[in-house]
Amino acid sequence: MSSFSAPTALGHHASSRVLPFLLLLFVGSGACALIYEVVWFQLLELVIGSSAISLGVLLATYMGGMCIGSLMLPGIASRAAHPLRLYAVLELSIGMIGLVELFAIPLVGKLYSPAVGHGALALVLRAVVAVLCLLPPTILMGATLPAIARWVESSPRGIAWLGFFYGGNIIGAVIGSVAAGFYLLRVHDQSIATFVAVGINVLVAGIAWMISLRTEAAANAVSADPEATSSATRTAAPRQGVRAIYVAIGISGACALAAEVIWTRLLSLTFGASVYTFSMILAVFLAGLGIGSATGAWLARIVESPRLALAWCQLLLTAGIAWAAVVIYSALPNWPINPSLAPSAWFALQMDLARAALALLPAATLWGASFPFALAAIAVPGEDTSRLVGRVYAANTVGSILGATICSLLLIPGLGTRDAQRVLVALAAVAATLLFWTQRTSEGVDPPSGALSGSPERSQRRRLLRFGAPVVAALLVALVPDLPGNLVAHGRYAVTWIGKTDVLYVGEGMNSSVAVTRVLSSGATQFHVSGKVEASSLPQDMRLQKMLAHLPALVHPNPQSVLVVGFGAGVTAGSFLAYPSVTRLVICEIEPLIPKVVSTWFVKENNNVAKDPRTQIYFDDARSFVLTSDEQFDVITSDPINPWVKGAASLYTREYFQAVRAHLKPGGVVTQWVPLYESTLDAVRSELATFFEVFPDGTVWANTIDGRGYDVVLLGHSGPSKIDIRVMEQRFQQEGYRKVGASLIESGFESPIDLFSTYAGSGRALRGWLRGAAINTDRNLRLQYLAGIGLNNYTAADIFDEIVKLRTFPDFLFDADPVWKASLRQALGGDR
Question: Which helix (H) or strand (E) holds 286?
């Protein structure tokens, strides 16, 4: 067909039969979009970092592209084009660009990293990279719904189908998020995930094109059914008050995305911040949107006033948001659940799925229903449905961008999650009140009396709603409970720590939630990040934190410049201050609260390192800093968060270790922390195999508790790995090294021999044991999936035994006299 025309009864009937097939196509389209989103965000986080600002740039660009596409298509695409053919071209183009992105983003990263640096210019360049990579495909994605909208008529029945399409797209997104998070990326990699999404795009485009060959381009026509036309005229809102609907759906989008940011952060405390948890939370939230959209689409055909239904959705959302806050703050942390008792992580995930649904589904369903109600409230017969959908979708998306960005960068760090949720309750009430008040404008006023149209009883109900919505919101705001400090500190084990610690400090930063506690039984101070202990003054933790500093500083003959990845409690960084040769200490930390506030609770243990004149702190993603810095160091030590935490695996990849090696001066030394607890044998083998692929002469050093495995430190060299003990002993004769000796003694190491007796193996000795281990790369990030399975496992002793049974005496490692080697051999238990 070369032009649009009103469909005949037969043509309209044929079109109606096609609509369910189009719904399935939108399910496939939604699945592709989420697979791409997960893959592109992973690729771009490796390039521009995973700080809150970087993620905000990515999300704003992604959704901004969707907004631009939804607005642009109606004005660009010819109305003579068949909607299904246009849709097919868009889907095919998305697939082709998706394939290009897989190879283009890493290339962009290679150009970006050497040129960027830090500061304001770096933020601009991050935004430029995100725009170049994400805008082209997301503009096309945003255009798909307006494109297909021209296929349906602007009647209650047609608008309902648009709601179903939107809901189907979201259900497809659920499928895509689950498939990507639990299978495609866990079993395969980003390439396979992209190829699957491209294949689905091609299939969807092909089916849409074939349907277009058998159907007319019959869009926007008034239905041939007079009764349907009459219904459309009766229920469609007049043009008065339309602006209020756009504002309301924008506020709805802002609240939805802001709430998703808040609840994902809070639920990751309760469930553990693994990649599986994030995929599950996203799937539950999207499922609620899909269910709500489908329900709203069905109801939009039969309710008397879609505008009033939209207003009720916003009013009920005040309760839905407050409900989620109460469940997350009060109910879930107090459930008597110990996740370490589950025989498999998959059983714990089933329980977490049910708990996430309990908290999130009510509000998510209402947000999903808001979109079809808004469409139905604005639509009038004969209108270009493409423009209608584009405007409503754009308003919702603009609100989403503002909500997610402002919440992440301002509300949470400025007010905290409790008050941020109170703001969302108030905003939902504002949207509801606005719609209730403008209902009078939309329905008209009786000229003679000025009274509201309708019965006195109806007018009275509306006055009650207009003034009652703010009152209800105020009551619900007061009901939002305080954030439990025990939840921030102990996360999924909060209930098992009740009465065992005093919470000294709780802070919610831009990137992380942090806490400081004191253990009542021992008096030890603990530092927590996102629901887990990150550092403490307990003997085993102090020993590890100092090993990460003393091992490389003693091995290096004259360390002057040091880079510490991750501030922690500052103990590792502070241990370098004892070395008189150290003149520059660079610390890279993603969360500003940690050095500025948390470190003050550990001033004695960390030598007040944050205030030392030799110290310079960069607040940035560590990987991004390493890739973009042109500085080289004598020592680089890394104490990141556990590998099972989403995003941490990027600090254990082959490419990251290669970048670290490139930033070592000749003779430079690197140490890397590897936890054996809350892990699996496969995850530990992957960490060791990846490190030793870059540092083949690397070694393993153990931090044990009562001789049993706890965690280990990997030691690598930029050159030969020989340790000259004679030179080291001469250094200890110097006056300046008295503090070094005292620091070692505080950690339980009476001499260098005691420190080196922690030797547990070498990369060469473990080569056979590591054969077949998964190498963690930027392309697969395999470690986060392997480690995510073990976050509740405590098999550290067994994993350590696997490593140490292959240990032989490290004669190759030390340049020392026979007496010293004999002493070390004895300390190691007489290893051969």
Answer: helix 275-300
- Length in residues, the chain: 832
Whole-number Cα distances in Å, 81 to 74, 147, 212, 314, 549: 11, 10, 11, 37, 67
CA distance 728 to 209: 75
- Which among 369, 473, 486 has a CA at the least distance from the CA of 421? 473
Nearest to 534 by CA among 510, 569, 502, 508: 569
Q: Are 433 and 466 a contacting pair, CB within 8 Å?
A: yes
- Give per-residue burial for 98-130: e unless 16+ CB within 10 Å, then b: bbebbeebbebbeebbeebeeeeebeebbbbbb
Question: Could you report the per-residue pLDDT of 501-552, keeping only the tens digit for each?
Answer: 999 999 998 888 999 999 999 899 999 998 888 889 998 889 999 999 999 9
Q: Which residues, including other chains, have CB under 8 Å from residue 685's CB and lie 6 or more apart?
A: 769, 770, 773, 774
- For CATH 1.20.1250.20, the residue range(s) in the chain are 1-227, 240-443+450-483
Q: What is the dihedral of CA 395, 396, 398, 401, to 10 degrees?
A: 180
Q: Residues of CATH 3.40.50.150 domain(s) within the chain?
A: 537-827
Cα–Cα distance for residue pair 570/531, rounded to 1 Å:
19
735-790 residue pLDDT tens: 888 888 888 888 888 888 888 889 999 999 999 999 999 999 999 999 999 998 88
CA 826 to chain CA centroid, Å, is 49
Superfamily of domain 537-827: Vaccinia Virus protein VP39 (3.40.50.150)
Closest Cα to residue 788, out of 661, 670, 640, 678? 678
Distance CA 822, CA 832 (A): 11
How confident is the model at residue 627, as a pLDDT?
Answer: 84
Decide if pLDDT at 123 tops 80: no
Token pair in block for residue 430: 């504002």
pLDDT digits (tens, 9 = 90+) for 415-465: 999 999 999 999 999 999 999 888 754 444 433 333 334 456 666 666 666
What backbone phi and psi angles, to 5 degrees, belong to 684? -65, -40
Q: CATH number of the domain at 1-227, please?
A: 1.20.1250.20
Six-digit token string for 67: 């907004």
Give 484-511 as a DSSP string.
Answer: PHHHHHHGGGGGGGTTTEEEEEEEE-SS
- Residue 518, phi then psi, degrees to nearest 5: -120, 125
Work out the mean pLDDT of the chain and round it to a whole number. 85
Q: Cα 762 to the chain's mean position, in Å?
A: 35
Task: Determine the 3-state secondary structure of 585 from DSSP.
Answer: strand
Candidates 592, 573, 593; CA nearest to 584 is 573
Q: Which one-letter DSSP state was computed for residue 452?
A: B
Kind plus residue range of the DSSP H or E element containing 564: strand 561-565
Exposure class string for 382-409: b at 16+ Cβ within 10 A, else e? eebbbbbbbbbbbbbbbbbbbbbbbbbe
CB 564 within 8 A of CB 599: no
Q: At what angle do helices 681-694 and 654-662 cross, to 10 degrees?
A: 40
Rounded Cα gap, residues 582 and 559, in angstroms: 6
Tokens at 104, concatenated: 């283009």
* CATH of segment(s) 240-443+450-483: 1.20.1250.20
Cα gap 433→294, rounded to integer Å: 25
Judged by DSSP in three states, 513 sits in: strand
Give, rounded to a whole angstrom, the gap between the first and last alpha carbons of the chain: 85
- Decide: 88 and 13 in contact? Cβ < 8 Å: no
